[in-house]
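Sample 1 of the test manifest.
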Amino acid sequence: MNDALARFSVATPLILWLLPLALLPLWRSAQRLVPVASIAAGPADGLSRAIGWTLRLAGLLAIGGLILALAGPYRNGETVTRTGIGAQVSILVDRSGSMNETFAGRQPSGAEESKAAASRRLLGDFVGSRAHDQFAVTAFSTAPMLVVPMTDRHEAVRAAIRAIDRPGLDYTNVARGLAMGLSQFGTQGAQVSRALLLVSDGAAVIDPRVQGDLRAAFAKIRPNLYWLFLRTKGSPSISDKPVGEDTPQAAPERHLDLFFKSLGTPYRAFEAEGPEAVAAAIRQIEALERDPIPYTEQRPRRDLSGFAFGLSLFGLVLLVAGKLAEADIRRARGSVAPSAAEAPPRRMAA
Amino acid sequence: MRALLTRNLRDPRFRLLAGALALVALTFVLGPLPLTRTGVAVLAIVDITGSMNVRDYAGAEGKPVSRLETAKAALRDLVAALPCGSRLALGLFTERRPFLLFTPIEVCGDFSPLDGALAALDWRMAWEGDSRISAGLFRAVDMAAELDTDLLFLTDGQEAPPLPSTGGPVFDGKPGAVRGLIVGTGGYALSPIPRFNDRGRETGFYGSGDVQQENRFGPPPADAESREGYNPRNAPFGGAAATGSEHLSSVREPYLKRLSGETGLTYAHLDGPGGLVRPLLAAATPRPLPGSLDLRPFLGGGALALLVAVFASPLLPLLAGTLPPGGPRRFATWKKA
């Protein structure tokens, strides 16, 4: 009962202070006052009494209903959980300065598209292509930046993605970015499909001290990891072994790839050397992430002031009918014979 | 019978009741009236440099709260209070440039991600430690122009390193082309600036020797010759180490007011975790938004007034005219049949 009541609310509760006005009809009547020498002279009449109370209640209803309607009653919206097809995708975008160059490693000119602009366009299409995906956006350069928390509001996610082709910052510090990208999944149960999508054009050495923490976080959250590596033409590939010493400093891309492979979570790297390759990679990711996902649907709150106006209208109709049927004892006697039907209002009014 | 009815129809209280009935009936017929409301589109740039960590605001129970936390709370309050349809873009400021996190987001429908993003703002997002306010502000003005929004720039105005004696960069845009607000954040009294180690843990406060007290790049100031130990070649800034209060921080209101004058923005001081709505709406470009006006409260209010008049009228002797003609002395009398 309390739960049911708690779902109802009014927009401006202060107006409800007017509610005592609804008691006015109990005290004063809208009917004409007819002075009678002795009310006791008339016989007690059940019907008259009933009509009298009906009119009083009608007045109460009319005033009370109006005050309630003015306060704006509504039933609270509710959140319904359903199941759809989709995934929680945490997008981790590299915002280092080199992302503003083309895939050929130049400043974009004419019709050329920078890596950031290409990922902006293609990721923007990816977001919102399925209704029930949830997205979070994290940017990183020297420091990670939480841009948009995990949400199903795709317009907000697209607004975040629209900002990724603006001039970037200094360096690529991928470790802290990964940590924040993982933290976007939250701590709730992992029944949903989770994907961490790293979009970067380079890699950096992950500090061995942080590696342990990252491994633990990956083991706990177990996301599918996708690395969309936007390779500049001529730069080393993920699989290229350096000529000299094979250290993380000499070939950070290769060692980041090795680190991801060692995590034990499903992992795929996509090496894209142009916008078409990026689009193909995103299509593949979309096809891979097809699992049921519980999503919440917000049912809007329902305005109930119509009902309150209806109550008031009902009361008013009764009151107006009462006024129309009003008969006056003196006049009535002069013109038409007093009948039982006309008598009650008179008695009530006295 | 007809005479009765005409008499009833002529009764003022009947007319009031009928009027109320008509008004209430109209609430079911009339739809909402379409009209134009004003909203804003604004780019909020939040200074996340070190001096914004100074705790010189009082929070709940008098606990000290940092400037950044207060600015965040004020922005969240602003987002909740802006008319629906208004849009907010968010960016960070540190070093010498603003960094856009997202393009404008609608404040009602996308409230929860917007609120979450504001709550997640952190000084640890800073990519570099400098705080060149004027350079950042001028570029933020350009960014707002590019996004076609107004600007809301929250900063304490402390330049780090201090501006050289020749002055800071010069605004080369058109003053007033972008409207908006510079919000001075921080108390008026000097407070120590918390210091963090490279793991992000607080380790104390900055001392006077930890920060640059004077900008010694570029030519020395005009008064350098009168300084102790001045030597044009070996000690152009004088022989002594610079002293000052750059390791302490307060809101640099005169400086921010000067900047707002140069750029054609309005200046406001942030007094607590709220209160940005009024100055922003006053300073920002009003943008028309489709809205609708529900007429029912007006109709209902009118009906209520009529109804109360009906039932309260017997209380007013002025309305005694509703009594039958001849006044109350003409009693109806009953005769024995």
